[in-house]
Amino acid sequence: MAQSHAGNTYLPFADLIKLEKVDERTYRSIAWPFSPGGQVGGGNFILPGLTSIPFVYKVHIIRDGRSYATRIVNVTQAEGKGICFTSTCSFKLAETSPLDVQEKVDIWDKYRSVLEGKTPTDFEECPGMDVPWYWERRKKTGHNDAFPGLQSQKVAMADYNDQKHPLDRRQLILYRTLGDLPPDPNMHLCAHLYASDRNSLFIVANHFEVGDIYTQMGSLVHSVVFHTGMENLSFGPSAGTSSPLDDKSGRWFCKEDYSDRVAAGRGLFHSKVWAPDGMHVATIIQDGMIRVTKKSTATAEEVGVVEGKKRKWRPREKL
Question: What CATH homologous superfamily does 13-92 map to?
Fold first, then answer.
């Protein structure tokens, strides 16, 4: 089957994010945007992205402090259509601290029911759109829209999730870059930012079992916090640990995704990013629109469908 869009190719990440410099504070994307429309980082999504027009990034210098620097980046596409995406970026100098605390997690042990005896490539590539109709189309045709920049595998979580309440369900996404990256730390950070929004709201909808009935979905605010230095965030050769994430052909990172709130037509997405050695290197939070009605007040039929799903949910696990 032919690819659905010119931007849906297995392009190395370093090529995906190449920019053309317009002036000292303005840049334009070179690679085609991929369908359904994306190629920008974390921030506030205002208008949907178009797949036929380059993104133009305008950088505004807010402050350069002794330890932190702040920038605002506004992204536009079609002239006269306004800003489609705006991002506030905070950069800092590397520093060490005697206070360094995190939950200790061995992903392969915590999720042994679905990971035991497996390696990242034993799992299927993430679907282009992680919703039931797309799963069925993929089964029938064998076609999955290519995703540029990343090799990302979706762990089959049914054995872990099926007996759990939606608030206790989890989705693991294992990812690494396509192609090698230069040593520039910012390139590695950009790759993690890019990975942070991989099918995020779809996962929320699926956990609450509305992936087949939602009427509108869209990112609103997306935030990523990096907790460590670049020695823990770098892709590339294995660091020699015993983790299956640290194989010889390159390090994998794991996104542990979940949601703890849906209400008022919105869903909240959380994710912890784990390095191969078990270090918690980043946290992702996204507020997104997930609607199950097109009306200001849901119909009795729509309410009944949702309530029917909720009645089948398992009770919460005891803490």
Answer: Hotdog Thioesterase (3.10.129.10)
